[in-house]
Amino acid sequence: MDRVLFTKGHGTGNDFVILGDPDGALQLTPALVAALCDRHRGIGADGVLRVVRSAKHPEGAGSAADAEWFMDYWNADGSLAEMCGNGVRVFSRYLIANGLATPGPEGLPVATRAGVVRAAVEADIISVHMGAPEVYAASTATVGPLTFPGIAVNCGNPHLVCGLHDSLPLSSLDLHVPPGFDPALFPSGVNVEFTTPGAPVEGADLHVHMRVYERGSAETLSCGSGALAVGAVALRDAGLAEGVVAVDLPGGRLTVTRRGDSWWLAGPAVLVATGEVDPAALG
Ligand SMILES: N[C@@H](CCC[C@H](N)C(=O)O)C(=O)O
C-alpha cells in the first residue's frame, strides 16, 4: 500500500489519527488501525477517524442526502463503534480546516453509524447536537475486588455510568485492567464511566468529575459520548428536566446541555499535526 496522509487531532486529550479518504479507496483493516494507533510503533491514538463521503461508504450511503461526510470511526484495537462524541467534534474541525465543509444555519451535518448529528463552531469550541441519550437499566461494574452499582445509557454506543461514594477518590481506581460488566446486558461490550460530584462551577447547574474505560481503547483522557451519558444520569438524579452539566475529565472539561429534547456536547477540538505514514513500516 502507498504512503498514507494523516492528520493528528484531539478533543480534550481523546486523540485520533484522521485519514482523509473522500472516495473510500483506502483498504482500512483492523490490523492497520491497531498499528496506526500503537503508541510505540505507530502514530499513537485512541482511535481512527476515516473521512469518507457518505455516498462512498456502505454504512453511510443511507445518510448521503442529509450529510455529505461519514465519520468511519474505529477504536484503537481495530473494532468499530457506532458513535464517538469527541470524534465528531474533531472530524468537524478537520472538514472545516481543509475546506471540505462549512457549517450552515442548521450546523454541519456528520453521518455516523448512530445517525446524523450536527456540529456548530464557536472559535475553539465545537458543539454537537447529539441524539438523546437513553437511560435504561441498572447494572454493576467491577474494578479488582470492588463492585460499583451503575446505570446503563445508550448514546448510540453503550455506556455504564457508576457513581462513587464520596469516600473513594476517582484516582484510587486501577483502570489498567478492563472493568468487569454484565455481558448479558452488554453483549457487544461497554464503555464504563466512574463519577464523583464536583463543587459548584459558574455557568453550570451541575458539576461532575469522571474517568472512563473505553471499549476498544482502554482508559482515555476523555470520552464525549461518555460525558453525555454522565450528564444524562446527573440531570436525572438531580430531578432536572433540563440544564447544563460541566463534566471534568483527566483531559479537560466537556459541557453537556439539555434544552427540551435537544442534547448538546461541547468542548475544544484541535488539529495538531499532519504527515504521511508508510503502512509497510508499521507493526
Ligand atoms: N471516545 C469516544 C467514544 C469512542 C467509541 C467507544 N470506545 C465505543 O466503543 O463505543 C467519544 O468521545 O465518544
Structure notes:
- The protein has two domains: 4-129 and 269-281, Diaminopimelate Epimerase, Chain A, domain 1; 134-260, Diaminopimelate Epimerase, Chain A, domain 1 (Roll), CATH 3.10.310.10.
- By secondary structure, the chain is mainly beta.
- The protein has a 17-stranded mixed β-sheet that branches.
- Strand 9 and strand 10 (158-163) form a beta hairpin.
- The chain is built from three helices and 17 strands.
- It is 13% helix and 43% strand.
- The longest helix has 15 residues, at 224-238.
- Ligand LBFN2T5F binds at residues 14, 47, 75, 81, 84-87, 157, 191, 214-217, 220, 223-225.
Give the gist of this structure.
The chain is mostly beta strands and 283 residues long. The protein has helices spanning 30-37, 85-97, 224-238; strands at residues 4-11, 14-20, 47-53, 69-75, 108-112, 115-122, 125-130, 134-143, 146-154, 158-163, 191-197, 206-214, 218-220, 243-249, 252-259, 262-268, 270-277. The structure holds the ligand N[C@@H](CCC[C@H](N)C(=O)O)C(=O)O.
